[in-house]
UniProtKB/TrEMBL annotation:
It holds the Pfam family OMPdecase. It catalyses: orotidine 5'-phosphate + H(+) = UMP + CO2. The active site is at K64 (proton donor). Homodimer. GO terms for molecular function: orotidine-5'-phosphate decarboxylase activity. Belongs to the OMP decarboxylase family. Type 1 subfamily. This is Orotidine 5'-phosphate decarboxylase. NCBIfam families: PRK00230.1 (NF001273), pyrF (TIGR01740). SUPFAM superfamilies: Ribulose-phoshate binding barrel. The gene is pyrF. Pathway: Pyrimidine metabolism; UMP biosynthesis via de novo pathway; UMP from orotate: step 2/2. Substrate binds at residues 12, 34, 62-71, 117, 178, 187, 207-208. The lineage of its organism: Bacteria, Bacillati, Actinomycetota, Actinomycetes, Streptosporangiales. It comes from the Bacteria.
Amino acid sequence: MTTPAPIAVALDAPDLETAARWAGLVTPHVSTVKVGLELYLRYGPDVIASVRGASGVRVFLDLKLHDIPNTVGAAARAVARLKPTYLTVHAAGGPAMVRAAVEAAPGTQIAAVTLLTSLSEADLAGIGIQGPPEDVVRRMAAVAVGAGAQALVCSPREVAAVRAEVGPDVTLITPGVRLAGADTQDQARVATPEEAIAQGADLLVIGRPITGAPDPGAAAAGIAAALRRVSP
Ligand SMILES: O=C(O)c1cc(=O)[nH]c(=O)n1[C@@H]1O[C@H](COP(=O)(O)O)[C@@H](O)[C@H]1O
C-alpha cells in the first residue's frame, strides 16, 4: 500500500451522489478531498460526512470566506465543528479578518487564498492593480501569515517565491494544475503536477483533470504515480 499522494481532489459536483462516488474512487490514491461552494451551498454540513465516508480521508472545506472580521469569525466557528483539515478565507479580507478565522477554528488550518488562479496580469490591470501577479501574491502571503494563517493558496507559478517569503512551516496549496498540453479552461496561471511539486507545493488541488476523466480513480492513480517519480 503506497502513501496517498499530496493531492486534494476538488469535488465540484452538481449532486451529492456524484461527489461521494468520486470521493470513493480517488481516496485510495490521494490524501484529501475538497468540498467547495457548489456542494456546500446545496447540501450544507451533511456533505462532509458523505464525502469523508469511512476512509479517514482529509476534508478541505473551501468556502473562501471574505467579510468583516466579526462575520468571518462567526462563520469559521460555525463550520469548525465539522473538523475540516483546511478552511479557506480570502487574504484580501485583511489581517484582522484572517486572525478572526484562525482564532475561531483552532483545530483547522486556515488557508488564505492569495490571488485566484483564474486571474491574469491583464485581469489585474483591469481592476487597477499594476504589475505581475507574483507581487500581489507575495504581499497577500506575508499579510496572511502575519495574521496567523497556517496555509496559503497560490498558483504553482508563485509557489517558490511564496516559500522564500514565508519559510518552511506554512502549508502551500496550489490549484491551477493541468496536465501537459491540456486545456487550461478558466484557469490563467497553471503548471503541471510535476512542476508544482518541484517548485515546492505541499498539496495540489486538482479538479476537472481528475473528475472529468472517464475513470477518476485511474486518473488520480496516474497523477499520484507521476508525483512519486519526481518526489519519491
Ligand atoms: O481555493 C481554492 O481551492 C482555489 C483557489 C484558486 O485560486 N483557484 C482555484 O481554482 N481554486 C479551486 O481549485 C479547484 C480547481 O479545479 P480545476 O480547475 O477543475 O482543477 C476549484 O475547486 C477552485 O474552486
